[in-house]
Amino acid sequence: MKLLSAVIKPFKLDEVKDALIELGIQGMTVTEVKGFGRQKGHKETYRGTEYQIEFVPKIKIEIAVPDNLLQSVIETVVRTAKTGSIGDGKIFVSDLQSVIRIRTGETNESAI
Amino acid sequence: MIRRSLHTRLSFFIGTVLWTVLTWTSSVFAQEGETVNTGDTAWILTSSALVLAMTIPGLALFYGGMVRSKNVLSTMMHSFISVCIVSVVWVFWGYTLAFASDVGGLIGALEYLGLSGVGGDPVSGMTIPHAAFMVFQLMFAIITVALISGAIAERMKFSAFAVFAVLWVTFIYAPLAHWVWGGGWLGALGALDFAGGTVVHISSGVAALACALVLGKRHGYGTENMAPHNLPLTVVGASLLWVGWFGFNAGSALAANGIAAGAFVATHVATAAAALSWLAVEWAYRGQPTMLGAASGAVAGLVAITPAAGFVGPVSAVWIGLGAGVLCYLGVFLKNKLGYDDALDVLGIHGVGGTWGAVATGLFASVGGGTGLFFGNPGQVVAQVIGVIATWIFSLIGTFVILKVVDGTVGLRVSKEEEILGLDLSQHRERAYA
């Protein structure tokens, strides 16, 4: 099992979510986050004063996936979240030790 | 204990004597009254409510939106508490110092102490109840004090602001209002100020400069992000200021007549023009027009047309507005150049806009008993400039002294920890957004 964290542009969330549901993904956790990568921030001006805004708003999607689905989930996120311009985000993949469904006590792949 | 009760008895005695004397003088005064005009009275009472709406909720929202989210309540509180404090001061001694019979051209006498005799009868030359005139003037005193709070936002102790408000309205506002409108020396000199360009806007703008200099910069100024936390609040506030300002300017005709209508028109078109010129300069200089720029430009126009409103036609009003948008846009850059932290640009907008408006009144005046330079009376500009300089000097020095007194007694600034925590929590133990 893998835990996949995808940081994407906020307006892409619906597109990514719909494509993942179509793929058979049953759940995800979504968080509003801020950060920067190569895109850096942007400038804002209020009256005479200019501020460099370093942290850009993004959406983070976390999905637990069985190993056999990993590649297709990654491809789906990349395909749907991509605009081609700077700031499209990143996907982080890490090993997932165990998963427990609280209601039933099921574990691992049957709990995903 | 004994000392205190003696003091109480003594003040009670003095109060009673004063009261008797004053009731007598005012009853003499009221005999020369004229008849009350119901239309005029209705308009001035309505205008009074409109001018109150400029401070709360107008200015409270305008300023509240421009600070950081940890300081929005404390900032709105400055406007709200100004209403409360100035109203009570006005009853006891504020009104009489500003508008009672003249003493040496400098200050009002004490016959209206405790609003003695200020009732339903008009004072001579007016067609509205004395009480209506008094409460209309009160609303001006309120907003002048509240305007200053933009300069001290995010760092002044609440207790210090409360004491400052009492002292400032007593020692700066009341004399200035007397000089211009209460029969004092500036009015006698022929300086025109229709609705308070010098009394309200220059005085508060210059007081703001003194505040910014004495209080010093906010912690993190120039390095931390101090962007406005809620510009929609600011836009709603600016819009309410625009609406309320019709009471301020058109109400200053003190009658429901042609001068009021002219002032209404001048106010409206100058404001629109100033918002446009601010946006134009901003667009050219920064690349984008901003909503905050439109709101700021509108307020600059309202400020600048204030002294001129009853004395100029609509085309002159547009010129005054266009000038205000450009000059006040430059005005807000002054603080960056000169290095003081006038947090919400009170000097940049009210000081600069008020000064331009006062001078422009001397240039463009053509109706309502005023004649300016462009209409053949160069002397008017001289009178205007004297009024501007006198107000600048008096407000700057007077405010400076008051701030030093407050600093030496209750202390002006919150501690660094309290400032970083935010004034909402440190001064009021509450939070705007749960």
Task: Detail the topology: elements first, then pairings.
The complex is a heterodimer of chains A (112) and B (434).
Chain A: E1 2-8, H1 13-23, E2 29-35, E3 42-46, E4 49-53, E5 56-65, H2 70-81, E6 89-95
Antiparallel strand pairs in A: 1-5, 1-6, 2-5, 3-4
Helix pairs in contact in A: 1-2
Chain B: H1 2-30, H2 38-66, H3 72-99, E1 102-103, E2 107-108, H4 130-152, H5 158-181, H6 185-189, H7 197-215, H8 231-250, H9 258-286, H10 291-305, H11 314-338, H12 346-364, H13 379-409, H14 416-421, H15 423-428
Antiparallel strand pairs in B: 1-2
Helix pairs in contact in B: 2-3, 2-4, 2-8, 3-4, 3-5, 4-5, 4-7, 5-7, 5-13, 7-12, 7-13, 8-9, 8-10, 9-10, 9-11, 10-11, 10-12, 11-12, 12-13
**Overall average residue pLDDT of chain A:** 93
CATH H-level name of chain B... which superfamily?
A: Ammonium transporter AmtB like domains
Sheet with most strands of chain B: 2 strands, antiparallel
Fill in the CATH topology of chain A.
Alpha-Beta Plaits
The number of helical elements of chain B comes to 15
What characterizes the major β-sheet of chain A?
A: 4 strands, antiparallel
H/E series of chain A, N to C? EHEEEEHE
Q: Give the helix/strand class of chain A.
A: alpha+beta
Q: What strand order characterises the main sheet of chain B? A: 1-2
Domain module tally of chain A: 1
Strand fraction of chain A equals 35-45%
- String of helices and strands of chain B: HHHEEHHHHHHHHHHHH
Largest interface: A-B, 8 and 17 residues
Strand count of chain B = 2
Strand content of chain B: under 5%
**Which range best describes the helical content of chain A: under 10%, 10-25%, 25-40%, 40-55%, 55-70% or over 70%?**
10-25%
Low-pLDDT runs of chain A: none
- Please tally the helical runs of chain A, counting DSSP H or I stretches of 4 or more residues: 2
Largest sheet of chain A, order of strands side by side? Answer: 2-5-1-6
In CATH, the topology of chain B is named: Ammonium transporter fold
**Poorly predicted tracts of residues of chain B:** 1-6, 20-33
